[in-house]
Amino acid sequence: MTVPAPVRPPAVYVTSPFASWIRVGDEVRHQPASVVHAKRAGTTTTLCGRPASSWPKFWSLDFVRVDGVRCRACVDRLADPA
Ligand SMILES: [Zn+2]
């Protein structure tokens, strides 16, 4: 019997103040509906410092490749975390 590897959430994931549901064929997707920010798991703020603990989280989306408008400050912080 093969035990599947545990699925780990990404270290940095996409979050957005607003979200919407769209239908794509037979699938219903939850997606960001405003500027997308990056957030590290276990923190309460985005990389740019906005409080985001109540914002929708999109664990399966990659902040680097996400469609839509990415927060410039989060992009800068991700590129240069110091
Ligand atoms: Zn941001």
Could you characterize what this model shows?
With 82 residues, the chain is mainly β. It has one domain. The chain is 10% helix and 27% strand. The protein contains 1 helix and 5 strands. The strands form 2 sheets. The protein has a 3-stranded antiparallel sheet with strand order 4-1-5, covered by helices on one side. β2 and β3 form a beta hairpin. Bound molecules: zinc ion. Zinc ion binds next to α1.
Short description:
With 82 residues, this protein is mainly beta. Helices cover 10% and strands 27% of the residues. The chain has one helix and five strands, in the order E-E-E-E-E-H.
List keywords for this structure.
three-stranded antiparallel beta sheet, 1 helix, 82 residues, globular, 10% helix, binds zinc ion
Give the CA-CA distance, first to last residue.
45 Å
Strand order of the largest sheet: 4-1-5
**Radius of gyration in whole Å, from Cα?**
14 Å
Helix residue percentage: under 10%
Based on Cα principal axes, name the global outline: globular
Secondary structure class reads mainly beta
Unreliable spans are: none
Bound molecules: zinc ion
The total count of helices amounts to: 1
| Strands, count | 5
Q: What's the order of the H and E elements?
A: EEEEEH
- What percentage of amino acids are in beta strands? 25-35%
Mean of pLDDT: 89
Q: How many domain modules? A: 1
Major beta sheet, specifics? 3 strands, antiparallel
